[in-house]
Amino acid sequence: MPRSITLAERHPELFAQDQYIDPRSQKRLIPMEVLCLGYMRTGTASMQSAFNILGIPCSHSFSLFYHIRDCAMWNQAFDAKYAGKGKPFTRCEWDQLLAAYGAVTDVPALAFWEDLVSAYPEAKVVLMERDVDQWFKSFEEVVIKPIWSKWGNWIASREPRFVGPLRDVHLRWVKYWMGVHSAEEMRSLAKNKYREHYASVRKTVPKERLLEYRLGSGWEPLCTFLGKEVPDVEFPKVNETASMQEKMAIIARRGVKNLLKRALLFTRASKDSSRSDMAWAASKSICLDGEA
Fold first, then answer.
1. Which 3-state string (H, E, C) describes 137-184?
2. What is the predicted pLDDT for the residue at 217?
3. What phi and psi, each to the nearest 5 degrees, are found at residue 287?
4. Pairing outcome for strands 124-128 and 34-36
5. Residues whose CB falls within 8 Å of the CB of residue 206, separated by 6 or more in sequence, listed in order
């Protein structure tokens, strides 16, 4: 009887060792070949996997799970572009932040799609789109609810090592790029934002540079567009709603675990401090007794 697939096998990005690399110290390692600009929940994780199979390492929001130090630089990019804090990123900064990637998809990169299209004129653009009503059902379950979860945000506000930095990046694209400040506002504006995004991409990107990739059409159109050989494996299909919800639960558990560790360390530190204070008081008492 075949064994069950483990959590680590289903969600390898959540169990990968963090690289602890300062992105500001990096330089571009490979060319930027593809900007995949479909909205979240339009097959971005499947496209990430497809690009990886084609030998084009692809940045996705999942990539932040094992590059937590990238979060701070993404926040700087958001603050510079949308809040006027600092200098907007140029190709120099993008080459640092995206040094190891030849493709991007999903947020946070999607919130800078115009900047990236301009910074990498040699990169081809791929666009995936779903029926807006079907898309919204998935977007609400997998994006809106977790982002505005009171429990999740409570954990994130108290856990600065993993969940907190991830939350900070996601709240920035929600508030800056989508321009919403509540779950209700996000629900009411999501479909219009979705439609506006696709209209803007089609208006901005020349047709000869753009592939409108139809989900489920397999390798042929993508490989033809990118000039790659068709792999001898099935086109990946990952990140179904149930899988994404399981991923969110793992992240929440890790946040709780980190909180408990911090609480334990604080308790131990408090006890050690109390012991030190008692020892100091006792030594002073002895000194005073000796002087009497």
1. HHHHHHHHHHHCCHHHHHHHHHCCCCHHHHHHHHHHHHHHHCCCCCHH
2. 95
3. -60, -45
4. parallel
5. none
Distance CA 241, CA 137 (A): 10
Longest dimension (CA), the chain: 94
Give dist(CA 282, CA 269) in Å, integer: 20
User: pLDDT > 70: what percent of the chain?
Assistant: 75
CA proximity to 129, closest of 2, 215, 24: 215
Could you tell me how far CA 251 lies from the centroid of its own chain?
12
Least confident interval from 34-38, 174-178, 217-221, 277-281: 277-281
Whole-number Å distance between alpha carbons of 105 and 151: 28
Contact 202, 113 (CB under 8 A): no
- Contact (CB, 8 A) for 159 and 258: yes
Any residues with CB less than 8 A from the CB of 280 and at least 6 apart, and which?
none
Fill in the amino acid letter for 37.
Answer: L
Question: What's the angle, vertex CA 173, arms to CA 261 and CA 22, rounded to 5?
Answer: 55
pLDDT digits (tens, 9 = 90+) for 239-271: 666 666 676 666 666 656 665 666 666 566 666
Q: Where does the pLDDT of residue 9 fall: very low under 50, low under 70, confident under 90, or very high at 90 and above?
A: low
CA angle 156, 160, 162 (to 5 degrees): 75
Q: Which residues of 135-159 are buried (b: 16+ CB within 10 A; e: fewer)?
A: bbebbeebbbebbbbeebbebbeeb
| CA–CA separation, 183 and 190 (whole Å) | 10
